[in-house]
Specification:
- The protein is mainly α.
- Helix content is 58%, strand content 8%.
- It is built from two helices and two strands.
- It has helices at 3-27, 44-62, and strands spanning 33-35, 40-42.
- It has a two-stranded antiparallel sheet.
- A hairpin with a 4-residue loop joins strand 1 (33-35) and strand 2 (40-42).
- Helix 1 packs antiparallel against helix 2.
- The longest helix has 25 residues, at 3-27.
- The chain is elongated, with a radius of gyration of 15 Å.
- The protein starts with a helix and ends in a 14-residue tail after the last helix.
- The relative contact order is 0.14.
Length: 76
C-alpha cells in the first residue's frame, strides 16, 4: 500500500476511534479528569470539545473541501 493509501486508512481508523470516544463521553459512560493539585477536576467537557475539533480536522483532510493542512499538537 502506498503512503497516501496508508494515510487515508489511518485517518479513517482514527476517526472511528474518536467517534467511539465521543459517544462514551457524551453518554456519560466515561468521564475524564485531572488532578490540579487540590483534587480531581472533571475535564469531560474539554475532552468532548477537543475530540470534536479533531474529528472536524480529520473530516477536512478526508474530503476534497479540506485545506490540506493540519494543526501541530500544541495548536489544538
Amino acid at each position: 500500500m502506498r503512503a497516501p493509501g496508508r494515510f487515508i486508512a489511518w485517518s479513517k481508523q482514527e476517526q472511528s476511534t474518536l467517534q467511539q470516544q465521543l459517544e462514551l463521553l457524551a453518554s456519560g459512560k466515561v468521564r475524564t479528569g485531572e488532578d490540579r493539585g487540590d483534587g480531581w477536576v472533571d475535564t469531560t467537557d474539554q475532552s468532548i470539545n477537543r475530540i470534536r475539533k479533531r474529528l472536524a480536522e480529520l473530516e477536512e483532510l478526508l474530503t476534497e473541501a479540506g485545506s490540506g493542512t493540519a494543526s501541530k499538537p500544541g495548536e489544538r
